[in-house]
Amino acid sequence: MKIVTYNVNGIKARLPRLVEYLIEQQPDIVCLQELKAEAFPIAEIEELGYGAIWHGQKSWNGVAILARGSTPVERQRGLEGEPEDEHSRYLEAEVDGLVVGALYLPNGNPQPGPKFDYKLRWMDRLAARARALLAEEKPAVIAGDFNVIANDDDTFSVRAMQDDALMQPESRERYRALVAQGWTDSLRTQFPKGKVWTFWDYQAGAWPRDAGFRIDHLLLSPQAADRMIDAGVDKAYRGREKASDHAPTWVRLR
């Protein structure tokens, strides 16, 4: 079972790239982020043999879960703890006995400021949901664009990113505390020395220079981690014409 997280950076603009990816790689479950639309191209997705649920928002945010050969059974949309939060950033479903939490964590820039404060509150709310998922003792994966550079070797340049919200001590502490609940950072487990990127900015020739960083993560519950075979990044898709600035990132489970 190949489970993918993929920030498409606009479902309308990147639909051809997403269709290519689904046809060529045939992943079993795909968590999409940054749809930037309320509507979702469900007809095109179903033509490829996938069912889907989505939580969209006009122009911003938006997450979806796709499953090959079935429709994900929705469990929850949004996180508890801040009723006035209308951002479409979390969607949870069950697919063939696996619990999938798809997320698009707030960027938090500029920091310090209200956006960074919102990011930290959102991470606290995510931590509460993650603890509840672990308590169920089911195979589970939390997958998405976490907008956190967890370690120094998860970026091409610590100096370039040192003032960014993605790498602040508060962001890192919350990410590490989340993992410490009992989750396995699948890509980190496979590449313990880091230097594996999932994002390359459109600016400053980041892609040709391979000046990227790792912010797309798939966290596994103990029951899912026991079934882990491999994890990686389908990096070549970042280099295609009109591609997203993220590459599909994946874990494979038995």
Short description:
This protein is of the alpha+beta class. The protein has helices at 11-25, 42-47, 114-135, 158-161, 169-180, 186-190, 206-209, 222-225; strands at 2-7, 29-33, 50-55, 63-68, 73-77, 90-95, 98-104, 140-145, 184-185, 199-200, 212-213, 216-220, 228-233, 249-253.
Can you tell me about this structure?
Helix 3 links the parallel strand 7 and strand 8. The protein has about 250 residues and is α+β, with helices and mostly antiparallel strands. It contains 8 helices and 14 strands. The chain has a single domain (about 1-254), classed as Deoxyribonuclease I, Chain A. The mean pLDDT is about 100. The strands form 3 sheets. A 6-stranded mixed beta sheet has the order 3-4-2-1-14-13. A 6-stranded mixed beta sheet has the order 5-6-7-8-12-9. Its EC number is 3.1.11.2.
Low-confidence stretches: none
The coarse silhouette is: globular
What is the CATH topology? Deoxyribonuclease I, Chain A
Structural class: alpha+beta
Largest sheet properties = 6 strands, mixed
Assembly status: single chain
What's the total number of strands?
14
Question: Mind telling me the C-alpha Rg?
Answer: 17 Å
Please name the fourth-level CATH homologous superfamily.
Answer: Endonuclease/exonuclease/phosphatase
Strand fraction band?
Answer: 25-35%
Query: Judging by the overall fold, what is the CATH architecture?
Result: 4-Layer Sandwich
Rounded mean pLDDT is 98
> What string, H for helix and E for strand, traces the elements in order?
EHEHEEEEEHEHHEHEHEEHEE
- How far the N terminus sits from the C terminus, by CA atoms, comes to 6 Å
* Tally of separate helices: 8
